[in-house]
Amino acid sequence: MAGVSVIQMFGRRVSWRGGCEWHRHSRNGQRRMAVSGQSPYCSAVESPAVQHAGRSRRKILTLQSMNPQVRAVEYAVRGPIVLKAGEIEKELQNGVKKPFDEVIKANIGDAHAMGQQPITFLRQVVALCTYPDLLDNPSLPNDAKRRARRILESCGGQSLGSYSASQGVNCIREDVAKFIEKRDGGVPAHPDNIYLTTGASDGISSILKILVSGEGQSRTGVMIPIPQYPLYSAALSELDAIQVNYYLDEENCWALDVRELQRAYYSAREYCNPKVLCIINPGNPTGQVQSKHCIEEVIHFALEEGLFLLADEVYQDNIYSKSCQFHSFKKVLYEMGPEYFNNVELASFHSTSKGYMGECGYRGGYMEVVNLHPDITAQLVKLLSVRLCPPVSGQAAMDVVVNPPHPGEESYEQFIKEKEAILSNLAEKAKLTEELFNQVPGIKCNPLQGAMYAFPRIFIPDKAIEKSKEHQMAPDMYYCMRLLEETGICVVPGSGFGQKEGTHHFRMTILPPVEKLKILLQKVKDFHMRFLEDYA
Amino acid sequence: MAGVSVIQMFGRRVSWRGGCEWHRHSRNGQRRMAVSGQSPYCSAVESPAVQHAGRSRRKILTLQSMNPQVRAVEYAVRGPIVLKAGEIEKELQNGVKKPFDEVIKANIGDAHAMGQQPITFLRQVVALCTYPDLLDNPSLPNDAKRRARRILESCGGQSLGSYSASQGVNCIREDVAKFIEKRDGGVPAHPDNIYLTTGASDGISSILKILVSGEGQSRTGVMIPIPQYPLYSAALSELDAIQVNYYLDEENCWALDVRELQRAYYSAREYCNPKVLCIINPGNPTGQVQSKHCIEEVIHFALEEGLFLLADEVYQDNIYSKSCQFHSFKKVLYEMGPEYFNNVELASFHSTSKGYMGECGYRGGYMEVVNLHPDITAQLVKLLSVRLCPPVSGQAAMDVVVNPPHPGEESYEQFIKEKEAILSNLAEKAKLTEELFNQVPGIKCNPLQGAMYAFPRIFIPDKAIEKSKEHQMAPDMYYCMRLLEETGICVVPGSGFGQKEGTHHFRMTILPPVEKLKILLQKVKDFHMRFLEDYA
C-alpha cells in the first residue's frame, strides 16, 4: 500500500504546495525564486523504495535526482488551482453535491473553450489543405480554395503532411512579411526575418535559449515586467537565467515607467549581466496598451544600455479603449530613425491563439527579427531544425490570419462580420468587467485597455492572511482556492504572475459569453463580500 | 558594404564548416564533441561592428555572447549539406547550368515530399474536425464522421482551436492506450501514462530535460547508439549532458551487443553518472530490427545498473525482412515478470511521421511511461503545461493512427489497401537498395530490415581523404558534397550520425518512387566509380 499513500500525499501536496511557492516568490523581489533544496517537495517526501513482488528498488528518476531547473519551474496558468478545478469537476461528475453545478475555467485565454466560434474562412482554408479532394466540392468558396491551393503549392509534395522548412513554409512567411508591412504603414519587412513557430511560446523560448550565457556575475539577466505572463519566469527557470523584475505602475493603469526600468537594470548589474528586455504589449495579465511615447523611451533605453528587445505582441488585435491604439515596436523603431532602426536588436511575436481568431489548439505563430547578426540567424535555423518544423496546419492557420479575405472576395463580408462581432463583444465585456469589479468594496480594477484579462487588486483582511499562512499558501492563492471551492469559478492568483509586496490580485479572462460573465461577476462579488465578513 | 561581406563570408562558411565539425566529431569517440571555444566560427570571425548611419555599434547577440550549449548543437539531417542543396536548387531556378535538372532530397524521412499520398481516412477525419460543417456533407464516409464527432466531443467547446489538456485530449489518450494493449497482446496500458507530444522529438527532449542533473563527475550521462539519430546528440548538447556512445555492430547487421553496453557504461562511470539508456528500434539510420532476446538482455542490463530506458519506436510499422518482427520494449518488459515490469523505468515513443502514414507536418506523437514516480508525473505535466499543449490537429491525426477503420466499417477496405500498398512498396525499395548498393565495388550495405534508410559503408581512397583535409571536411562530408554537386542527390554523411573511427557511410532514404530510386541508385553507382578512379 506504500504506493497508494504516496499518491494520496501527493494529491494533497498538489493543492497546498503552490501556495508556498508563490508566497516565496512574492517575497523574493528581484531574483528568481525557487531554489532546489528549498522545495517543499524535497523536505516533505523521501524518494520511496518501491514495494512490489521481488526486490524493492529505488526509482532512478525522483525529485531528488531530477533536473533542479525543471523542478524550479512554476506555471500558474495551469498550476495547482487548475489541478484542483479538475478534481472538483470529477467530483461533480461523480455526483458529489457542491454549491454550484459547473466549474467555470476563467484561468486561461482559451476562447473556443468558452464558446467562441471559429472564423469560418480560416477553417475552410485549413480543411481544404487537409483534404484536397474538397477543392472540387462546390459548397466551399473559391477564395478559400485559392488560398488553399497557394499554400499546398508551397508544401513538399503539395501535402500538409510534409515537413516544411524549419523556418516555416515560404509563401506563408511571404504573407506574414506583407501583413507586417501593411500593419506598419509600409515599414519594410522581409520573409527571411520571419520564423513561423509552434505558438508564440515556442518563439520566445527559442530566442531566450540562444540569448542566455555566462556564469556567476556574468550570467545573463532577462528583464521582465511584474506582473508578467509566467511563460517568461518558467523559461528563465529552465534556462537557469537570472530573472530581473521591473514593476508596472498599478496606480497609473499599469503603465511602464522608464525610470523603473533604469532602477531594475542598474541594481541587476550588481549581480548579473542584464542583456535582454521583455515587453508584453498589450499587457498580460494587466491589459494596458503602451503609448507610442512610452515605446520610444523603452527603445531609447535599450539602445543606450545595449539590451536585446523581445516584444510580445500577441494581443495586438485586442484593443478596446477608444483612447488607445496598438503601436508595434518594429514600426516605432523605424520611425525613430536609422540610428535606432539599424542597431537595436529586436524579436517580436504574434500568434493564432488570441486576437479574434482564438485558435490556440493549432499552435500557430510567428517571430520577426530585426538586426539579428547573420551568424545568429544560422544558429537559430540550426536550433529550430532539431525540432524539424512547426505544425504545418498551424502555419496554414497563421496564413489566413495574415492574409484574410480582401474587399471584393466572396468571403469578405462574412469574415468582417464574424471578426467585428467577436471584437466588439470582447470590448463590451472588458467594460462590463471593469465597471462591475469597481462596484465591489475591496476590489479595484484598472481599465481593461486591451488583451483579454482583468487583473483586479483585492483587499485581503489580516485575519485571512493569517489563515492563509496556516495553510502555507500565498494569501491570494487562499482567496482563489476558496472562490473555487465555494463558487466553482477558477481564476489564477496574482502571486502566479508576480505583484508588489503586500498587494494581492487575481487574473480572470473576460471570455465567457456576456450573460454568463454577468453571473460570474455577481458570484465573485457575493463571494468577496462574504470573505470580507468572515475575516472582519 | 561591411554587412554584405559578412553575409558572403557566412555563405561560404556554411558550406565548409560542417566538415570541420563532423571531422572533430568522428575523432572524438566517447564524449560529446563540440566545445565552445573550438568552433571554427569563433576563430574565423570577430563580432563585427555594425557600420551604418550614425554611430557604429556592436551586436548584443553574437557567436561569442550566445549560449555555448546551443552553439555546440549539430543536426546533420538538416545541416550544411542540406543548406548547400538549397543553394543549388536556387541556382537551378535561376537558370544556372548543372549536370542534372533537379535536386533529389534523400536526406530526410519525409514521405509525402517524395510523392507518397496521405491515407484518405486520416485526412477525412482531420478535415471533419477542422470544419465540422462537413459533418453534413454526404460525400464523406460515416465512419470518418463518427471518429471526428468523438474527438470533437472531447475538445473544449468542441473545437480543435481550444487548448487541450497539456497531456493531450482525453479520448485520444484512451485510444492510444487501447492501441498499445492490442499491439502488445493484452499487456495493460493506461491513459494516465500516455502523453501526446509534438512529434516524437518533443517527447524525447522533454523527458531528457527532466532526467539531466548534477555537476562534474556527477553529471548525467546518456547512453546512445552510434550511429544515432542526431536529435539525441543535439538534445544532449543543449542540456549540457554527457553523451555516452555505445557502438552497434556493423559486421553483425548493426546488432546491439550487450557487452558493448557494458564496456560503454563502465568506462563512462569514470567521468559521469550514466543513468539513461536510449535505444532506437527499428534503428535509425541503421535499419536493424532488434530480436526479443536482445531486448531482454538490454532490459536486464538496465535493471542491474539502474538505468532509465528510452525506447524510440517510431518505425514500429516499418519492418521489411520476413525474418524480423517488432517487439515493443513494454511488452518484453512485461513478459520478463514482475521483478522487471514493476521496477524498470521506461519511456517509449511513437509518431504520426513515419510508418505508412508519413504525416510529418502534423507533428503528432505520443510517449508512454512505465514506472514513473508519481512526483515525476506531476513534474512532467508541469513542464509540458508551460508549452500549453501539443497541436490538436496533430493529436487528431495520431488518433486515426491508433484507431483506424475496423473490419466491417465502410472505409476499412480502402484503408487496408492504401496501407499495404505503401508498406509493400517500401519493402520492395528496401530490398532493391540493398541489392544495388552491394553490386558496387567499395560500397557495402547491411540488409534494411526496417525503418526507411540505407546506411551503406563506403570506401574512400587515401587521396580523397587527403583532399577532404584540405577542405577541412570529414571525408564522407567531402564525398557527399561532391555527390550533391555532380548528381544533385542529397544524402547525409555518416559523420553526422557517428561511426567507428576510420569508417565512412552516408544515410539515404528509400522514399523516392521505385523508378526514381533506381535512377538515383544508378547515379550513385556511377559517381562512386568515378570517385574511386579520380582518387586511385
From TrEMBL, chains A, B:
Naming one, the record's GO cellular component terms include: cytoplasm
**Entry superkingdom:** Eukaryota
Q: What is its EC number?
A: 2.6.1.2
Keywords assigned: Aminotransferase, Pyridoxal phosphate, Transferase
The pathway is: Amino-acid degradation; L-alanine degradation via transaminase pathway; pyruvate from L-alanine: step 1/1
Q: Which Pfam families match?
A: Aminotran_1_2 (PF00155)
The cofactor required is:
pyridoxal 5'-phosphate
Where would you find the membrane-spanning parts of this chain? none
Recorded hits in Gene3D superfamilies, A to Z, give: 1.10.287.1970, Aspartate Aminotransferase, domain 1 (3.90.1150.10), Type I PLP-dependent aspartate aminotransferase-like (Major domain) (3.40.640.10)
InterPro entries to which the protein is assigned, alphabetical: ALAT1/2-like (IPR045088), Aminotransferase_I/II_large (IPR004839), PyrdxlP-dep_Trfase (IPR015424), PyrdxlP-dep_Trfase_major (IPR015421), PyrdxlP-dep_Trfase_small (IPR015422)
Q: Which reaction does it catalyse?
A: L-alanine + 2-oxoglutarate = pyruvate + L-glutamate
Q: What class of enzyme is it?
A: transferase
Q: Which family does it belong to?
A: Belongs to the class-I pyridoxal-phosphate-dependent aminotransferase family. Alanine aminotransferase subfamily.
Question: Under what name is this protein listed?
Answer: Alanine aminotransferase 2
